[in-house]
Amino acid sequence: MILASTVVGPSTDWYLTRATGIVALVLLSGNVALGVLDVSRVSSPRWPRFVVDGLHRTVALLSVAFLLAHILTSVLDSFAPIGPLDAVIPFHSRYRPLWLGLGAVAFDLTIAVVITSVARERLGYRTWRAVHWLAYASWPVALLHGLGSGSDTREHWLLAINAVCVLVVLGAVAARALQCWSVAPRAAAIGVAGAVAFAGGVLIWLPDGPLGHDWAKRAGTPTTLLAPRPATGVARR
Question: Where are the alpha helices (DSSP H) in 83-237?
Answer without folding.
Answer: 97-118, 120-123, 125-132, 134-149, 156-180, 185-205, 215-219
